[in-house]
Design brief:
The chain has two domains: about 1-150, ATPase, nucleotide binding domain (Nucleotidyltransferase, domain 5, 2-Layer Sandwich); about 200-390, Nucleotidyltransferase, domain 5 (2-Layer Sandwich). The strands form two sheets. It has an eight-stranded mixed beta sheet with strand order 5-4-3-2-1-6-8-7, sandwiched between helices. It has helices at about 60-75, 110-115, 125-140, 160, 170-175, 185-195, 250-260, 260-265, 265-275, 280-285, 290-295, 300-325, 335-340, 340-350, 360-365, 390-405; strands at about 1-10, 10-20, 25-35, 40-45, 55, 85-95, 105, 145-150, 205-210, 215-220, 225-230, 330-335, 370-375, 380-385. The protein is α/β, with parallel strands linked by helices. The longest helix has 25 residues, at about 300-325. The protein has 16 helices and 14 strands.
Length: about 400
């Protein structure tokens, strides 16, 4: 069977087509359409065993984007499927399921209504996800869709961890609470870690660190999430590429009181916290860790400070989660930085000996992109680097939902 996975962002559509059976899960086509609605829309696509193709296209909305990618998949000479009925199910990544969804679900009228009710807590992302669903219904009539949520994996967080100490009415009326994000990634790598440990996930205590332009850390106790660093929005938690992470909330009040431009245009303040802070804001150079590392080699003091803040924020969360888990079996690194920066991994683990967290420098530096242990063989706490695969988990979840219904 073939499973199509769609990840619709505010101005992009990313897709992956999988061929799946009981013994094999193979990615056979994938691509991305970016800058939807703007003049220069970029379209990159690839079919297995073929060269990647890139072009500029005229696409005005998500419906046209989905229509284009389906047309390409069906192309008689260059495509990989002969008709739409080869697609068993379409799996959609949805960023925030709020209080409405606690598992992956088959799309129905009621499900779409409940998803629209979640627009207020994730207006840009959830609206784009919804547009993707409507596009599939129009272009692939009769093909079922399944929603897989970034927030669902964090649904096991207890109330004393997900609640904010605000008046309780704000939780009841406006659903203000910690939701957590990157759940699909944390879920995938924790399952992969269990395979590598050769133990059931419910027998393991793990800390998973998804480190990229957006970063988050999750504490997993016997297979269930106990806490995660991102909160009501992805802004909370670690220092990130352009997000500030944890700050004193009174800083926001101070800025609103002092600067009229923020009082008059709340979008400017939102952009300051989400798009102009983090590594970019401190370094003044870039949100890309590769640029930061190059600037450090050139002894740029602000880049050095930004890097130290990034590492410190991660170490702080690891230590806190180690404590609430009362010890861990494994610490997992994933995400663009977590998978690709041996230096970041080494510095995070430096001076954590009291927690039995030690890294094998040789194994760490020789990491080649395949899931592996990077801790000493006799280490009590195992360190793992696992490439995340959110699309594959979405495909699995979508397939399972259809099979079980």
């Amino acid at each position: 069977m073939k499973v199509l996975v769609l990840n619709c962002g505010s101005s992009s559509v990313k897709y992956t087509l999988f061929k799946m059976n009981d013994k094999d899960e193979k990615k056979i086509a994938w691509g991305i359409i970016e800058r939807i609605g703007l003049e220069d829309v970029y379209y990159k696509r690839q079919i297995i065993n073929c060269i990647e193709k890139k072009e500029t296209v005229n696409i005005k909305n998500h419906t046209e984007a989905v229509e284009l990618l389906i047309k390409d998949l069906l192309h008689k000479k260059k495509g990989i499927i002969s008709n739409i009925n080869e697609i068993f199910v379409v799996g959609h990544r949805v960023v925030n399921g709020g209080n409405k969804f606690s598992k992956s679900v088959l799309v129905t009228k009621n499900v779409k209504k409940n998803l629209k009710d979640c627009f207020s807590i994730a207006p840009l992302h959830n609206f784009a996800n919804y547009m993707g669903i409507l596009a599939v219904e129009k272009i692939l009539p009769g093909i079922p869709s399944v929603l897989v949520f970034d927030t669902v994996f964090h649904k096991t967080i207890p109330d004393y961890a997900y609640m904010y100490a605000l008046p309780y009415e704000l939780y009841k009326k406006d659903h203000i609470r910690k939701y957590g994000f990157h759940g699909i990634s944390h879920n995938y790598v924790s399952q992969k870690a269990a395979e590598m440990f050769d133990k059931p996930l419910n027998k393991l205590n793990l800390i998973t660190a998804h480190l990229g332009n957006g970063s988050s850390i999750t504490a997993i106790k016997k297979g269930k999430v106990l806490d995660t660093s991102m909160g009501f929005t992805p802004l909370q938690g670690l220092v990130m590429g352009t997000r500030c992470g944890d700050i004193d909330p009174a800083v926001i009040i101070y800025l609103l009181d002092k600067y009229s431009q923020y009082r008059n245009n709340i979008t400017l303040l939102n952009d300051l916290l989400n798009k102009k802070s983090g590594l970019l804001g401190i370094s003044g150079i870039s949100c890309d860790m590769r640029d930061i590392m190059q600037a450090i080699k050139n002894k740029n003091t602000k880049a050095i400070l930004a890097f130290k803040m990034f590492i410190y924020s991660i170490k702080k969360y690891i230590c806190a989660y180690y404590g609430i888990l009362n010890g861990i079996d494994g610490l997992i690194f994933t995400g663009g930085i977590g998978e690709n920066s041996a230096n970041v991994r080494e510095l995070i683990c430096k001076n954590l000996d009291s927690l039995n967290i030690k890294i094998n420098s040789k194994s760490n530096k020789n990491y080649s992109g395949v899931a592996k242990f990077v801790s000493p063989k006799n280490s009590i706490v195992k360190l793992l680097v696992i490439p995340t695969n959110e699309e594959l988990l979405i495909a699995r979840e979508s397939k399972n939902v259809i099979v079980s219904n």
